[in-house]
Design a protein that fits this description.
The protein is mostly helical and about 350 residues long. It has one domain (about 35-275). Helices cover about 50% and strands about 5% of the residues. Helix 2 crosses helix 8 (about 255-270), helix 3 runs antiparallel to helix 4 and helix 5 (about 175-205) packs parallel to helix 8.
Length: about 350
């Protein structure tokens, strides 16, 4: 029997599935403060099986067993750079490929919790190779992984060669306790920094000249799939991955940098999967894509940021999933295009 919690609770004819509305953002920024809600928000993302928890575990495993030693990265050499690139392309291909295979090729959960009722594009001149999946794979693997690797190697090399601060423990009680607190806290701060950076870069990418040159490529994906996550124009990749440069000034451990990388890439893959959650044996196993960003791909001029920070609420571009918000978004788009 199907669990009612994963039924396709469609509230609009435009969607196959909609979650509970209105959409909520991180209550950490609510005023007056609501610490209990904020704790529940982080507990859901950290204390249960979640994308963030998986990304942290993956970062630790890759650092301990796969990545080159930090000392080796002090000198720029093809060998270790190639190893970083190869690790990245294997991880992303495995993650996006297996998710696409499960959700779209084998259709293991059918349309349960799938937002958009349409199939991914085929035989369309909109896409490179006339195929949405092939288009997304090309831009992701050729451009996306290359820029990801470049910025990641830049940060690792800077840290290893002493050009950027690295996290380290000191001697004594406080020398161990305070860095430990910072080590843990940074895992919470990275998603917030990522949200801040993404909002402003994303708004810049919607500036009409830059949108036409670069960001329009990502927005070919009105209906998204796992390979859409970092399917972008090289100009957009160059801007998107400047997110990593925070580690040139903020003391970070290599595990933090790896977690940041997986949050930016594997997290984007999941958040473009087109499904709210992964379902197995009629139960939600792990949260995938939020409706917040799905709305951005449908309506373009709304929800430029993420649910981690309420930038869209503060600047009047928030779409909470309601029909009223859709009307407001269309009216705002009309005003924007008339003023151009």
């Amino acid at each position: 029997m199907t669990d009612s919690s994963i039924s396709n609770s469609s509230k609009s004819k435009d969607w196959n599935h909609q979650p509970a509305l209105p959409i909520q953002t991180n209550p950490l920024f609510n005023w007056p403060p609501e610490p209990r809600l904020a704790f529940r928000w982080f507990a859901k993302n950290w204390l249960a099986l979640s994308q963030v928890a998986i990304q942290i575990v993956l970062a630790v495993v890759v650092y301990l067993f796969i990545f080159p030693p930090l000392e080796e990265m002090a000198v720029l050499q093809f060998g270790w750079v190639f190893k970083v690139w190869l690790t990245n392309i294997i991880l992303l291909s495995a993650f996006a490929g297996s998710m696409h295979f499960y959700l779209y090729s084998m259709r293991k959960q059918g349309d349960k919790l799938k937002y958009d009722p349409r199939d991914l594009g085929k035989d369309s001149g909109v896409f490179t190779f006339r195929n949405q999946v092939h288009d997304n794979m090309f831009w992701t693997l050729v451009s996306g992984v290359s820029f990801w690797t470049f910025f990641q190697c830049l940060v690792f090399h800077a840290g290893a060669s002493g050009l950027a601060p690295l996290f380290e423990f000191s001697s004594g009680y406080w020398g161990k306790l305070l860095p430990l607190i910072w080590f843990v806290l940074l895992f919470f701060l990275i998603p917030l920094w990522s949200s801040f950076h993404f909002y402003w870069v994303h708004r810049f990418l919607h500036w009409p000249p830059l949108y036409k040159i670069a960001h329009a490529l990502h927005h070919r994906n009105v209906n998204v799939g796992p390979w859409s996550g970092i399917s972008m124009h090289p100009i957009e990749h160059a801007l998107y991955f400047t997110n990593f440069l925070i580690h040139l000034v903020v003391p970070s451990h290599p595990v933090h940098i790896l977690f940041h990388a997986y949050f930016q890439t594997l997290g984007a893959v999941a958040n473009h999967s087109g499904f709210e959650s992964l379902v197995y044996r009629d139960k939600k196993q792990i949260q995938l894509a939020d409706f917040f960003h799905q709305l951005h791909h449908r309506y373009f001029e709304c929800n430029y940021g993420t649910v981690e920070m309420p930038w869209d609420k503060w600047f009047g571009s928030f779409h909470d999933g309601s029909e009223e918000a859709t009307t407001e978004t269309w009216q705002r788009k009309k005003r924007m295009y008339q003023s151009q």
